[in-house]
Amino acid sequence: MNNPESRLSDYIDALNAENNPEKHQDTADTPELEKLLASVRLVRTLRDPVFPEPGYPQELAKAVASSLSRSAESNSKPGWKNKRVAGRSRRKWFLQPVTALVAGLLLFALFTSWNGLFNRDVAYAMEKAVAQLFNYHGVLEMRSKNAAGEEWMVRQAELWSDGDKYAVRQNDGALTVNNGEQKWQIRPQSKEVALLPLVPDSTRTGFDLRDEAKLAKQYPHTVTGSEMIAGRQAIKLEISPPGGLTYYLWIDKETNLPIQLQTAMQNALQTTYTFVSFEPNTQIDTKIFDYQLPEGYKVVEKEPGQLVATAEEASAISQLTPLLPQEAPARIFAFKERIVLDYGDTTIVETAAKGSFEPVANAALGAAAGGPLEVWWERLRWRQAGLEIQAEGSRREELARQIAADLTLPDTGENLVSKAQVKIPVDMEMAKANQQQVDRGSSPWQLDPMQVSLTFVNLKVSPEGIIGEPKIPAASFKLVSNNGAEAVVEVASGPISKVYLQRLVRQDETGIWSVVGYNPAW
């Protein structure tokens, strides 16, 4: 490889992989490149730079880059060339690419915090560390805190994870094991072994290392400091999901792996998951993943289902004709009247459609297979060809479109409320107070546009208040549109034909609805 930039890039990657920095024979074939590699190795030894003031690295980087740029421009003038003809060939190679490389190195060094030159971003380093995580053993503690600041221990669990295999031992001694072929729970108190459905778990403990690393890299995040967590020095990340609530993640400095998660305060509760002990890529006794019936225990079957090799086998067991995405699943599980397609980070469940399709009250509505599509957090649900289909996980939209080609997600730019004939001014301070009330666990009905509409219409009919059963019953209300930010509810009887609502404070599933307009019935 003759390109010096590529050589330097490969050398940096080798250092980043913790390879011996002295093993660079045959990398540098010129004195200039050898000096640059030596500088890289020196910069690599830097740790925890201290800057005189906030924003100093960015300002210095800009100044250095600007200076280098002016130097390069002046060196390119004709007069300079005439004075330096003898060195033109060598300097053309050295001053242009190497100046750019030095500028890049300075930018790398100056924008780097305590993770060093090569971990340009904490979340990026965490993603790489998780990709190299083969197994781990640890003890996970789960604590909850209410809005009043009262905190208590919920549970503590011992975890073993090895690829797709895992085991979880709870406080009461119950041990749940999934070895990829069987899933069971050993219950010492009742001396039972329950055979459980062998289906993918969306979360094993509430704190999945791989999921958290992926989300941290995906969402806007800020390093807010460094703290000791369970005896480990950890970097604290503030993560801000778009349209969601800020939460915190702590990353072990030594391993670059997440060791603590603190959720946002929702419904007046906040949960913190902490690995009070954690051993990554360690020696695990694989016997824990072997199914054995302890002496004196009885077996309790819980519709365990079967791991099958083909869709035809799944159909024979479930008595369903599955609809398959173009991409084949990693595993297929078959149950009576249910088929589960496992794609690792995404799961598709198909069951026999029964009764009417009723979306969750607070779900946004799209369209699929000529009917409604329920959009609820990371789940899509619709009906097609006699099946009710549910896709959940990071690739839900991509795989769902392979089944329902006409799948359409809600359009948040549709501006539904502009069609309201009567506009209602909203007191934002009151809306914020109501949102805080709901966050504390009160008045959850404000999360449902149907309930908000029912209350609004009946107060129009009975301004003195709703006593007993409402005069306009719930059966008269129908949700016709919900794009996640705005909603429209039709009313079959009474003085109002349509109610228009908005999420004014928070545009996600935790946000309350406010009436912003309506259409009279006459």
Task: Give an overview in words.
- The protein is α+β, with helices and mostly antiparallel strands and 522 residues long.
- The protein folds into 4 domains: 4-120, no CATH class; 124-286, outer membrane lipoprotein receptor (LolB), chain A, CATH 2.50.20; 306-401, no CATH class; 416-520, no CATH class.
- It has 11 helices and 25 strands.
- It has helices at residues 4-16, 31-44, 56-75, 78-83, 88-111, 122-131, 209-218, 311-318, 396-401, 428-439, 449-461, and strands at residues 135-146, 151-162, 165-169, 175-178, 183-187, 192-195, 221-229, 232-239, 247-252, 258-262, 269-280, 298-301, 306-308, 331-335, 338-342, 346-352, 364-368, 371-376, 379-384, 387-393, 422-423, 477-482, 486-491, 496-502, 514-520.
- The chain has a 12-stranded mixed sheet, with helices on one face.
- Strand 7 (221-229) and strand 8 form a beta hairpin.
- Helix 2 (31-44) packs parallel to helix 5, helix 3 (56-75) packs antiparallel against helix 5 (88-111) and helix 6 (122-131) runs antiparallel to helix 7.
- The longest helix is centred in the N-terminal third of the chain and has 24 residues, at 88-111.
- The radius of gyration is 30 Å and the shape is globular.
- 26% of the residues are buried.
- Residues 46-52, 76-100 and 106-120 have low confidence and may be disordered.
